Amino acid sequence: MKAILVRQFGGPEVLKLEEVPALKPAAGQVLVKIHAAGVNPADTYARAGNYAVLPSLPYTPGTDGAGVVDSVGEGVKKVKAGDRVYVAKSLSGTYADYALALESQVHRLPENISFCQGAGVFIPYGTAYHAIHHQAQAHGGEAVLVHGASGGVGIASVQMAGAMGLKVLGTAGTEKGLELIKREGAHQAFDHSKPDYRDEIMRATGGRGVDIILEMLANVNLGADLKLLAQMGRVIVIGSRGDVTITPRDLMSRRASVRAFTLWAITEAEAADIHAGIIAGLENGTLRPVVGSQFPLRDAGQAHILVMKPSGAFGKIVLIP
Ligand code: NAP
Predict the structure, then answer these.
(1) With contact defined as beta carbons under 8 Å apart, do 65 and 84 qualify?
(2) For ligand 1, is residue 40 a contact (CB within 6 Å)?
(3) Distance (Å, rounded) from C-alpha 102 to C-alpha 207?
(4) Digit-coded pLDDT (tens) for 164-192
(5) Which residue ranges of the chain lie beneath pLDDT 50?
(6) Cα Rg for the chain, rounded, in angstroms?
(7) What are the DSSP E strand ranges found in the chain?
(8) Per-residue model confidence (pLDDT) at position 52
(9) Does the CB atom of residue 55 touch ligand 1 within 6 A?
């Protein structure tokens, strides 16, 4: 089988397609024939050697993927050979022809969801679910600002929050991104590349502010976010790439809060909620992963360059083995 291998941390050029030994599932494990692998920003942080938890070298990147169960190890009951699944973390990495996963890491992929869409399920929708339900504890009728709505997590958040009855305000940095987020359900869309877009957001809430901000770039936006919050508002930090200064009195005067998380730290109970919610939403059509671009597996380096471009996300980037 072929797989991308990273033998040393570094730039996108360290992602090399190599022939590697075939995998075999041991007890409790599942071997998945990967039809599409999802590319997430965190894959690039790890590849560069710049992440809280680093894999030991050499390794095959990729947390997300979708495909068909090839074979299962002893004792596996949840899936059988031939089942369509999405992978949410794995033992061997998803940028490969096959991935070995624990039984708990594979989940049924509904028939109406393509493999490319399935490759964009776990990190984007799991993050959106955890942010909206567990962290923000959102209620229908609240107003949420999805700050960075045109990317993987953003689109998932727009769809999920809309399905729950929240008023959804979203931002993007291009015309195409703005059209995309309106199509996916944002009630109002704002261009975060414009100098006065925050005033527009405030006006759109009648000066009240938003109840929840899902923040994809906290190092740029957190200080200004606090001034956009309504009373008891909360910012959920999802993405950040550096330091930022805030004015704590903006929080005090609103009885507001900032919460943050990484998806790696969710509990088993939270994971069970997340997958049940996601699978139901995929089946009933409220959650519709958007595939932005596809690359052959050998071009994983190009996909890593694209996912880190400052603007121009239009859904998920996927790799096809
Ligand atoms: P993505 O697909 O690359 O999307 C990035 C998003 O950020 C796009 O919507 C982009 O909009 C937007 N953006 C660019 N400049 C912005 C600005 N000045 N203000 C607000 N948004 C801006 O990435 P993703 O997969 O959605 O992930 C988003 C972030 O969350 C990344 O930093 C990622 O590492 C992080 N993340 C964290 C967790 C966690 O566990 N905490 C999980 C998943 C992702 P335009 O392209 O339209 O400008």
Answers:
(1) no
(2) yes
(3) 49
(4) 999 999 999 999 999 999 999 999 999 99
(5) none
(6) 20
(7) 2-6, 15-19, 29-39, 64-72, 84-88, 98-102, 106-108, 143-147, 167-172, 188-191, 210-215, 229-237, 257-260, 291-296, 316-320
(8) 85
(9) no
Residue pLDDT, tens place only, 77-117 = 999 999 999 999 999 999 999 999 999 999 999 999 999 99
* pLDDT for residue 69: 98
Angle at 11 between CA 9 and CA 14, to 5 degrees: 65
Tokens of 124: 């984007």
Does the CB atom of residue 105 touch ligand 1 within 6 A? no
Residues composing the chain: 321
**Cross-strand bridge partners of residue 159:** none
CA distance 240 to 212: 17
Residue whose CA is closest, atom 5 of ligand 1? 151
Token readout for 223 is: 């200080």
pLDDT on residue 260: 98
Cα distance between residue 128 and residue 278, in whole Å: 10
User: Is the CB of residue 88 less than 8 Å from the CB of residue 270?
Assistant: no
Ligand 1 pocket test target in 45, 214, 216, 267 with most atoms within 8 Å of CB: 216
